[in-house]
Design brief:
The protein is mainly alpha-helical. The chain has helices at 7-34, 39-66, 69-76, 79-87, 96-116, 143-160, and strands at 119-127, 130-137, 166-170.
C-alpha cells in the first residue's frame, strides 16, 4: 500500500519554510541596520519601520474586529496569515515579571550615576508600555540627569522589552500628545 502525500501539506511546509527564511533574513537586515555608522539615517529607518509596524498593527486589529469568528478561525489555518495575526495580535501578554526584571536591570545600570550626583529615582507605574518615573534629590529638574535617564534607561528597555514605548518623568514638561491612534512598537531586537 502506497502512502500519497497531500499536496496541501507540501504547500504548507514550503510556505512555512519560506516564511521562516524571510523572518531570518529580516532579522539579519535589522541587525545590519543597528550597526550602521550613520546614526541619523539609522534612526530614521527605524522610525519609518515603527510607523509602518504601527499602521499594520492597527489595520490587522480592525480587520480582525470586523471578521466573524468562523472566518478568523479559517484564516488561522493558513500558516502565513496565522503568523501575521500572531505578530500583530492586540493581546500584548508580556509577562509582568519579565517587564519588572527588564525595568529593574535598566534602573540598576543607571542608579550608580544618579547616586554619585546625590539623586535617586522611583518607579511610579508601568502601563501600556509607558514607564512613569520620579527623579528625587539633586537630580530633580537637572537636565543632564534627564538626558542620562532617557538615553540609558530607554536604550536598555528598548533592547529588552518589545512593548516599551517611552518614559515619562514626573515634574518635567510633557511633550505634546501625538495625534495618532497607531500603537508604535519598536522593531529592534534585544
Amino acid at each position: 500500500m502506497t502512502h500519497e502525500t497531500d499536496p496541501r501539506d507540501v504547500a504548507a511546509e514550503t510556505e512555512e519554510l519560506e516564511l521562516d527564511d524571510a523572518f531570518a533574513h529580516m532579522g539579519r537586515l535589522i541587525d545590519e541596520l543597528q550597526g550602521a555608522e550613520n546614526e541619523q539615517v539609522r534612526d530614521k529607518v527605524f522610525e519609518l519601520l515603527d510607523w509602518i509596524d504601527g499602521f499594520h498593527r492597527e489595520a490587522v486589529a480592525r480587520i480582525v474586529g470586523l471578521l466573524p469568528h468562523e472566518a478568523l478561525q479559517a484564516l488561522h489555518e493558513d500558516p502565513v496569515v496565522a503568523r501575521l495575526l500572531e505578530t500583530y495580535s492586540e493581546e500584548e501578554e508580556e509577562e509582568v515579571e519579565d517587564v519588572a526584571t527588564s525595568l529593574e536591570d535598566a534602573l540598576d545600570e543607571i542608579r550608580p550615576y544618579l547616586h554619585s550626583h546625590g539623586g535617586e529615582m522611583e518607579v511610579l507605574g508601568v502601563s501600556g508600555g509607558v514607564v512613569r518615573l520620579r527623579l528625587m534629590g539633586s537630580c530633580h529638574g537637572c537636565p543632564s540627569s534627564t538626558i542620562t535617564l532617557t538615553q540609558g534607561v530607554e536604550g536598555i528597555l528598548k533592547e529588552r522589552w518589545p512593548g516599551f514605548r517611552r518614559i515619562e518623568v514626573e515634574g518635567l514638561e510633557e511633550p505634546a500628545a501625538p495625534q495618532s491612534v497607531l500603537q508604535i512598537q519598536t522593531l529592534r531586537k534585544g
